[in-house]
Amino acid sequence: MSTDKTVAYEVAVPVGGAPDVVFVGVGAIGLPMATRLKLGGHRITAVDPFPTARAKAEDTGLSTAASILEVLPFSGVVVVMVATAAQLSELVTTALGVGAVLPDQTWIVMSTVGPDAVRIEAGRLSAAGARVLDVPVTGGVARASTGELTLFASGDRDVIEEERQLLGCLGTVRVVGTAIGEGQSVKVVNQHLCSIHIVAAAEALALAARLGLDPGAVLDLVSSGAGGSWMLNDRGPRMLEDTDVTVTSTIGIFVKDSNLVATAADQLGADIPLLRAAQERYTRAVELGLERRDDSRVIETYQVEATARSDAGER
Amino acid sequence: MSTDKTVAYEVAVPVGGAPDVVFVGVGAIGLPMATRLKLGGHRITAVDPFPTARAKAEDTGLSTAASILEVLPFSGVVVVMVATAAQLSELVTTALGVGAVLPDQTWIVMSTVGPDAVRIEAGRLSAAGARVLDVPVTGGVARASTGELTLFASGDRDVIEEERQLLGCLGTVRVVGTAIGEGQSVKVVNQHLCSIHIVAAAEALALAARLGLDPGAVLDLVSSGAGGSWMLNDRGPRMLEDTDVTVTSTIGIFVKDSNLVATAADQLGADIPLLRAAQERYTRAVELGLERRDDSRVIETYQVEATARSDAGER
After folding, report:
1. Residue B187 annotated to the active site
2. B7 pLDDT band (50/70/90 cuts)?
3. How far from A296 is each of A200, B42, B274, CA to CA, in Å?
4. Would I find Oxidoreductase among this entry's keywords (chains A, B) (predicted)?
5. CATH topology agreement for domains B21-179 and B186-306
6. What does the pLDDT read at residue A100?
7. Where is pLDDT greater, at B310 or B273?
8. A294 near A242, Cβ under 8 Å?
């Protein structure tokens, strides 16, 4: 298993007028990724149907297009960072519908869409002659901006090696297998753990408060020991702030990702009681109007119940 | 909040014929703790009703007694490392029943018994004139042996300071508060997280296998990132071994501790869906005959279900 990291660099690379990368989906995480690729010397066209996303991309000096149709025919790499499997499917349908010059294209799917979706869409693209890699990423917006994402890369090893410079602009490439879907499967396990660990941290800190302890002191006491987790350290402090705390990743993302984990597990008949419990908390947080808030605010689902019980007891 | 660590040392301290520490409960974790205190210069009498536990203690050079009655009247420190709240209650009843010279005794409750139990028993001991500290520990047998436990100490600050040399023989003293029960409360939160994180690791690695991935490779890929936890790193590798893997802490311990967390939460009306899901897995592991196995073997509850479903599908 390779753990190489190609350090991103800032150089002026002479390029022609045509893009060598079409980057589809320049949202919160896509835009800093596209910017890293530009810093790495690539000529980018950023594709996004949303005018505000395109405007932000143009502010950072990227060329933009509202649809992939505007850049076809195209020879080079298509990086896909759309939000959902449905958007990926629609993108592929659009590209294939105009008989794109796919033998000259390498598609790198970096969205988290689940193993089934990437297998289906990779199959359609491959049948049209394109090369495809399945490379979901983890690390969030902060690490996307610094080129320190972790990339779970699967697909043909020769194609991965051909794209190693490009991938290396974004972070550390971990080659997880040769089959399309393996990258997404690793991401499923990763999101399983992340989904649970955030809620576990919220449940623990809410319990600490109910026990009459200072949650901040408890966080300090337990986070460095056997109860510690990356999420407890990262999200814990934000759980102790208020609902308007800076958003690093939304509740909505974990509604999507915990559903994606549950769907993948259901198809395999895998038992996932802890993930189910976590998933329910994200859903409840949306019901409380927290969808666009930082995912750490899932702790409010515990506080609301504590308050409701307390109110009921007082009557 | 103090984070001092008094380093344990090996010196010959001249002492008289009487013990200065009565150590009650020299089981898997109690014996190495008592041995650390002896290395720290204390004269120990190890009390344990189980002949095999006493035999092991004698093998390490400790004096032993089958009941605390054999060492009463006694002036000094009583360290309590029994397994359950019921055993603590019985011990206190026994000691109080003979009108022990409690004004000369300091009791340090280090068992994990929950905040209510320690408050009740500390109340009885204090009424008889004893000084009491609530000091549950975390770190397991391995760290007990090296004097690297973490001690969540609560109680009168002067008494904690008086016992700092003794406590320092066992590990790092974290003073969590002045009220009896605060140490146990912090331990409740710690065990809440530990209970969930072990099962989360098992569920994730079982899911990885169902996804057709190599769970060992996935462990390597996800444990250093946002999905990481202390338990995933520590228990994960043992989950990938077989049922006879070396026992560091048993399933039985987490049945006890997850029940203790649930009881404390229930009394407060605190919502703990993730802990409930984890608790159920430990209970199921006992039903599978795994009570004395390493707690990492909770993963077998997932494997059994996968096998059962697979068998049903083949019929």
Report:
1. yes
2. very low
3. 11, 47, 16
4. yes
5. no
6. 61
7. B273
8. no
CB-closest option in A138, A182, A227 to B213: A182
How far does B210 lie from chain A, in Å, by closest CA?
7
- The fold adopted by the segment(s) B21-179 is Rossmann fold (3.40.50)
Q: Which residue of B has its CA nearest to A173?
A: B221
Please report residues of A whose CB lies closer than 8 A to that of B150. 225
**Min Cα separation B206/chain A (Å):** 8
Q: pLDDT of B204-226, one tens digit each?
A: 999 999 999 999 999 999 998 99
CATH placement of domain A186-309: 1.10.1040.10
Locus of tokens 């814990």: A236
Residues A207/B189, Cβ–Cβ less than 8 Å:
yes
Domain ranges of chain B: 21-179, 186-306
The complex scores an ipTM of: 0.90
| B 202-241 residues inside an 8 A Cβ radius of A | 203-208, 210-213, 217-218, 220-222, 225-232, 234
pLDDT digits (tens, 9 = 90+) for A86-112: 999 999 999 998 876 577 899 999 999
Q: Which residues contact A125 (CB under 8 A, 6 or more apart)?
A: A92, A95, A96, A102, A107, A132
Give me the architecture of the B186-306 domain, per CATH: Orthogonal Bundle (1.10)
Identified catalytic residue from B5, B38, B56, B187: B187
Interface of B with A in 11-70 (CB under 8 A): none
Our CA-based measurement puts residue A208 at a distance from the nearest CA of chain B, in whole angstroms, of: 6
Query: In B, which residues are within 8 Å of A268 by CB distance?
Result: 210-211
